[in-house]
Amino acid sequence: xxxxxxxxxxxxxxxxxxxxxxxxxxxxxxxxxxxxxxxxxxxxxxxxxxxxxxxxxxxxxxxxxxxxxxxxxxxxxxxxxxxxxxxxxxxxxxxxxxxxxxxxxxxxxxxxxxx
Length: 115
Hints:
18% strand, 41% helix
């Protein structure tokens, strides 16, 4: 499994979700560690410390990221949206990250095109 993450509002947290990254209070003290499986008491704790949103882990299947058909479609869509060619390590990493996100979107039966 490959770990990907997304930001959600506190009201969207469901028990069993896994925290991606540490959460700190306004004094810099850690109140929740990376990898914590969230339960109701954590949601209450976040509200007490005025945490509005958190980053959670989204697990994806390696098979999706290895599917040549999905990769080719995502690559075509992404390149049609880009007005430049990645030329350094940072830009290539950005392209690869966008490609993975688009592949996941396509695998959920969304073609990734703007509507």
